From TrEMBL:
Gene3D superfamilies: Calcium-transporting ATPase, cytoplasmic transduction domain A. This is P-type ATPase A domain-containing protein. Its main location: membrane. Residues 224-317 form the P-type ATPase A domain. It is found in: Membrane.
Amino acid sequence: MEQQIVHATVGRVRFRVPRLRWDANYAELVVQLLESLAIVERVRLNRQAATVVVEYQPHLLAANTIHDALSRCFSQATVATPQPCPPTAAPADAIALEDYEAQVEADARLETDWERLGLPLVALGVSLLSVPFELPFVVVGAAVLASAWPWFQRVGHQVSQGHPPNVDLLDSLWIGLHTANGQFLAPALKTAMVGVRADVRDRHRRQQLHAYPSVLMEHYQHLTVERGQVPLTIESQQLQAGDIFWLQPGELVPADGKVLVGIAEIEPAHFALSRQVMVVRPGDSLNAGSQVITGQLQVQATRTGWQTRLGLITDLLHTEPVYDSALAHQQGEFARHAVLPTLALSAALWFSTGAYGPAIAPLQFDFGSGVQLSLRTVLLSAQVFAVQQGVYLPTAGTLEYLAQLNCLIIDGRSGIPDLLGCQRLIQTLRRIGIATYVVHPEAHTVPMEGATDLTSDRLSDLQCYLQGKQYRVGWLSFGEACSCPLDQWLPIRWAPSTFTPNAKVVVLLDPEWAALSRGIALARDALERTYQNVALITLPNLAVTFGGMFLGLHPVVNVVTNNVTAFMAEFLHGDAPQFRTELLPSRPAPSLPTTQHARPSIPQLAFAP
């Protein structure tokens, strides 16, 4: 092995690896594999010195076992490559209105600190020193305009592509007019504060994307499995649902699965809600990325690769599928239609008052950041939290639809598992005002209390009724095929063995009825937080903008208010890791019959005689 331990203390070990100095890809993979170990707390890479420092939890495993596990990462990195993310199913028009300040581009290149902060900080420093040192107007103005180059560049791109004007045009005019008038501090402060926010956001994103889990690496280790009572030696990416394998102390769990034999202590994966060591026994579930501390386990894989919880979370963090919601489209359409009226208002104030300050104030109306920052933070955090709770919400649109659900149809024609759990869910949904219908294959079935029972021949009548009421309907189906009859309804699948990541289908990852109620609760909570963030940004912005128009409020106050509220919404209130998972009553539930004999006994449906 080319790596060697040059220094080791309790909880910390330093490796020297000459290859790190000249192979950047190898260095990146080494860090990703080391960070994927559940016991590892921190990894620091110094390519110039060709060293890697790993900090880990020393009390969980013996030192030699830990060092062996760390050393394996270096050899695995010589052949491992990250698997590409599954293709996204989001439509091409799912992106909301883009503006530089909100930075909504999910696939934007991560910029360096100098690109984000260099020119803005220089411009801010020059503007602060311009008065005491009597710096030339041209020098200060050029520095301020150079710091605002991203806005001007985006406006030029919009014009060259023939797109209608957007918020960037308002920001560019505001910066340019203030600079031309000799008011350098406000535009310089704006570019600097926006740059700081973007830099903090990028650092957070780098940290999320850097911890690429080893279970999503190709060719990173070999496993001995039993498949159909036949022993096989395979590479980890070839693991399939149903394969049986053994795990030893220090090894990572390569897939989601069930414990068949053995008792062991497990250190949960980094994405888990709790990092406390837990004991697992036969029948318990294991998640990919966890690490065996003591004991031995025989495990049967249930989901592998991108379909594991760790894979789904990684995909969500990489693709950020949060711009397909109705809220995003409404915000985008509002902003597109508000740009020209805002310009007209500014021109009207100029011609009617002749005052420079009130005329330029409307250009600071914030039409974009509130919704977009909430989509980027609140809804993405909610999607990750939902996977941790056993519910996969592939896009923000599915989360929004689930939060606004009026009706749930349970397709019981192939049987309903756990009737008691189903009955509890129906009662819970009834308390919060969601009507439930159960489709049975025959007329003579055991009725579900609190739900409306109907047979397959009456399904078309139910569709007509619900479409007439414009209800938001969820269709819960069992088995491997999704049988949702209408495209506008939300398909919900019950613990399928395989599914397509990014497809707009809610997936209950475990056969548990309570998971659906938890998913509805956290979706409602996330949507409520999004609206709160919009108010947190919009209302102060309107106040300081009107203050500039009618009270002569200094533009620096506007800049500080806008950026402070945006920072609070994005980093303090937006990125909360916990959401409400208990449903709260929202409105009186409709009165539903508990039995079904003749068609007139279902008052919700307008059946033809």
